Amino acid sequence: MKIGIIGATGHVGHFLTEEALRRGHEVVGIVRHVPETAEPNLHFLNKDLFNLTTEDVQDFDALISAYNAPANEEPLHLEAMKHLVEILAGTNVRLLVVGGAGSLYVDNKLEQRLFETDNFPDDFKPTAANMSKGLDYLRNVENIRWTYLSPSKDFLVNGARTGHYKVGQEQLLISKYGKSEISMADYAIAVLDEIETPQHQQQRYTVCMV
């Protein structure tokens, strides 16, 4: 498949790029700054997300957004979602969004989200709240094919690539070790599994270590 990855050189984007290339897909990294060195067989589109057009993305089988708004500009999460929906409307391109864990529910009645709990760090609340708004917007969209994948509470840059994960929908998951965590490497595996074998179209879901 031909896969575009917005933010391909970021933390999560790096693992997504590696996983997609490992599986033999054609990958285009969509970045504002092209690095001097990069993975072999990785192509780049040097463009800001908000400047992307339908023509830029219409040939992709899937477009992954690993966009993360800068500090103090968190409302851009919603604006980015709106822009992606606008340029993908009417195409056959699947949108896969690297979501946040903050919007996952921590109760069985689905009334309280993680970022609304007392122990959630204040520094991360603006990002979590605005990413949640982006998800709410996406849920009401009918003219594109989308999937939103939330990681566990602890999203580990240096976690192991185990190749195993368990899947949930709207609630925060806990592993058999009592932890809510997923490595970025295993998260990338989950994203590519979903691209290759769609199971969660027009849905948000989440993954956690087993």
What topology does this entry show?
Elements: E1 2-6, H1 11-22, E2 26-31, E3 42-46, H2 54-57, E4 62-65, H3 76-88, E5 94-98, H4 125-139, E6 145-150, E7 154-156, E8 166-168, E9 181-183, H5 184-196, E10 203-208
Parallel strand pairs: 1-2, 1-4, 2-3, 4-5, 5-6, 6-10, 7-9
Antiparallel strand pairs: 8-10
Helix pairs in contact: 1-5, 3-4
Domain NAD(P)-binding: 7-194
Pfam families: NAD_binding_10
Protein name: NAD(P)-dependent oxidoreductase
Oligomeric state of this protein = single chain
Mean pLDDT score: 96
Class per helix and strand makeup: alpha/beta
Strand order of the biggest β-sheet: 3-2-1-4-5-6-10-8
CATH topology: Rossmann fold
How many domains make up the 3D coordinates?
Answer: 1
CATH class: Alpha Beta
Low-confidence stretches: none
Major sheet size, sense and barrel closure: 8 strands, mixed
Rg: 16 Å
Tell me the span between the first and last alpha carbons: 29 Å
- The number of E-state strands comes to 10
How does this structure look, described?
The protein contains five helices and ten strands, in the order E-H-E-E-H-E-H-E-H-E-E-E-E-H-E. The longest helix has 15 residues, at 125-139. Helix 1 (11-22) crosses helix 5. An eight-stranded mixed beta sheet has the order 3-2-1-4-5-6-10-8, sandwiched between helices. Strands 7-9 form a two-stranded parallel sheet. It has one domain (2-208): Rossmann fold. The two termini are 29 Å apart. It has 210 residues and is of the alpha/beta class.
Concise overview:
This protein is an alpha/beta fold and 210 residues long.
